[in-house]
Amino acid sequence: MAIFMSKDQMRKSLGLRAYEKLRDDVLTCKLAPGERMNINELCQEMGFNLSAVREALSKLTSEGLVQADPKRGFNVAPISLAELRDLTSVRIEIENLCLRRSIAFGDVNWEAAVIAAFHIMTNTSQTDPANAILATGDWWSAHAAYHRTLCIACNSPWLLRLRDQLFAQSERYRILGARLGRRDRRDVNREHQDITDAVLARDVDRATGLMASHFELTSKMLLDASESAARESNLDQATFVNDTGSPS
Question: What pTM does this model have?
């Protein structure tokens, strides 16, 4: 049986596809922080109509990934070292609040989901054949799914929405750090294994402590990478700005 979509359903479908494409381009820094987003050019490049692209930009603006200016139009939200520090601090607070609640409310099905998500992530190749520095898209997805699964049993849709927004913002910094040429000198699988073990043991203090250290180490490595890029006059590539909003 043929399935027909109404005009309204088609519009929503196009808007969702445009949103997903633009969001991916922002998070992976294909659209650089601070870059101006010309709506007509985006329509031509992406093959979507004006309505779909405007709808996508409006949603990304509400998520803080895009900024709207009445005079200048849209641009990718800028990033800064000050924001990275603040983002890391707030992310630890929210993520660990979700984690504490998940450990308290999660049942055996949640435990099984955590084990499965960890297994998928650790058995997904991290090395991108085209760029040894960057992780594969599949690994990024598995990594995101793992961290969300840890928090999914928190029993609070609002906390999860806040948590997801913070995670998305932090991924921009992580991927940008990789594009700066940063190589992780750390055993990420071991870090995730330790977190998983503590969660399954229902050891709240250890699990949240490990999670905080996990995020803080990532932030420190990104800060170190930006400082190294600054010393090497790689500021155009880094696109980090200092605490005053000027190129650092």
Answer: 0.77
> 131 and 71 in one domain?
no
Same domain, 22 and 100: no
C-alpha 241/C-alpha 248 separation (Å) is: 5
Based on the fold, state whether residues 204 and 134 are members of the same structural domain: yes
Question: Are 97 and 16 in the same domain?
Answer: no
Residues 168 and 51 in one domain: no
pLDDT tens per residue across span 171-211: 888 877 766 655 556 788 999 999 999 999 999 999 999 99
Q: Note the pLDDT tens digit of each residue in 41-98.
A: 889 888 888 888 999 999 999 888 999 887 778 999 988 888 999 999 999 999 999 9
In the chain, the number of structural domains is: 2
The domain in which residue 21 lies consists of 9-76
